[in-house]
Fold:
Amino acid sequence: MPISVKKVADSKEMRTFIAFANRLYRNHPYYVPNLQADDAATLDRRKNYAFEFCEAEYFLAWKDGKVAGRVAAIINHRANEAWKVRQVRFGWIDFIEDIDVLKALLQAVADWGKERGMTDIAGPLGFTDFDPEGMLVEGFDKMGTMITIYNHEYYPVFLEKLGFRKEVDWVEYLIKLPEELPERYAKMGQLVLEKNRLRTRKLTMKEVHREKYGQKMFRLINECYKDLYGYSLLSEKQMDQYVKQYLSFIDLRMVSFIEDEDGELVACGITLPSLSKALRKTRGKLFPTGWAHLLNALYLNRSDTLDLLLVAVKPEYRSKGLNSVMFCDLIPSLLKLGFKYAESNPELETNLKVQSLWTSFDNTVHKRRRVYAKSID
Structure:
């Protein structure tokens, strides 16, 4: 039977688009589903402020009368302008084990992009770096995390057969936490603070909201991440959106803030209990019982593994030891909460400064993910 690819035309087809990956990976031991409500909000032009500078279209592939694949076509005009490219992104890509399905989906993205003046196609990428990105190419026998993509091993094989090349890789580390904070670390951290006239600060959620610390944090992220691959600066509306979406459930004992003597935020480190197993139990749905699994994983029966969501250090402080200060600040709390391991966020393989943070710990690179690219014919 021929393969047909059609634009998502209504709310029913959008629900099919969002649910497809969960059906494709049903009962897979390493797949961690996105919450369907979060995907719906991200893909909604009325709710996602990234549409201030992005445009997108969504496609479903059909074969033998059944949905065989999905893909989002995205143009981030702000990123294209910043990086001097004319690139259409593909994201939210999933497909059965049939290379012709993938070929048809990517052709739909390329054609849509070409109609809008794009010359290259790349992905998997989202609207911004806060969406899942990068195709898994190593670590298929490891469970995914809440912020990353899991995919079958045939995905990258098929892409390469279709002529796509490596654009950039990220690596992910599994880190064993020390049983206690070495005394020399504590002394070093205190010296760094005193020398640079800085202070660590523990905040209540009330103080975070009153002093708009979430917005301060995302402004710092903009400054720190602006030179990383494909990054597009967050708008104020996006910052407010992410604060509302994520900050409400963060345990502030697992966050480190460092300020200068004027109260300006110069560094932050944010960690979160691993929610992978809880998300698997939700099957992508908050209701009727999904929310209970997540609350349990956040506050009651935590995993012994935490996710290192992000580390950001103001550029002028990057060589002054602030990363060690954050670990000195965080590790006692993390050990008290019962954590034994940490899983890093994807880190660009060329970002050696960030990777050097883990050299003092027992660590291993256990996953690798990739963005592929190709010129549009």
User: Anything to note?
Assistant: The chain is about 35% helix and 25% strand. Residues 198 and 260 are 4 Å apart (CA to CA).
